[in-house]
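Haloacid dehalogenase
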Amino acid sequence: MDPRPPRLIMWDIDRTLLHAGRIAVQAYATAFTAVTGLAWREATVFAGRTDRAVTAELLAGYGMPDSDELRATFFQRYVEEFAARRHLIAASGRVLPGVREVLAALADRAHVTQTLVTGNIPAVALAKVATFGLDGPFDVTVGGYGMDDPVRAELVVRSRRLAEAKYGPFDPTDILVVGDTVHDIEAALTGGVTAIGVATGDTGADELAAAGAHTVFTDLRDVDAVVARLAGESPVPPPGQRAPLGDPEPAGSA
């Protein structure tokens, strides 16, 4: 039996693990108009938010209620529209640097459980990671997904509850949320667990640190350093300390 305390790592997907292009947004927009008959608003912000929260906001903007029936119909159409475009993801998206290596190294540690806590609804979340062959390391049965609750912090709470029911208790310091937005950091802190920022999205390292992240990585290229921190094998730095990893990604890379 591994003597180390069990560790639960909750990964965000978009711009933390991968870029999926705009395929999901296109599918979402098509489904929204098809189900509601309403025009899509291009200014809609998805980053760090749950699909359920985005849907409620869009409907409210048109004075429509966010009913369980309408939401179920919309999400089903969204899944269909996304599935029809899934073959385009590999061409328009990419896995971010260091991700494959970090996930594989953590999967080799018996005391670590990895799952997904994401604003995506389950079918879309699993399709994104599976398209790039990243699905193997995750126990998706204990994750938190964008149709579970509009509040992202509740996804953290849900994932922890499911994981502890399956694996036993985790110390809050051994539960880590890894994400690229302030929403991820705030969800971790509200849930009383460790917040790890990764500045691979639109939010800079300084902003993630200011939001309260316990550690901020520029990216995941320094696999040994990232794995050591996430697996609990290195000293814990002061809250908000930025880990100087790798060189900036070349502009225009895809």
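thats it. The CA atoms of residues 212 and 240 lie 6 Å apart. The two ends are 42 Å apart (CA to CA). bye
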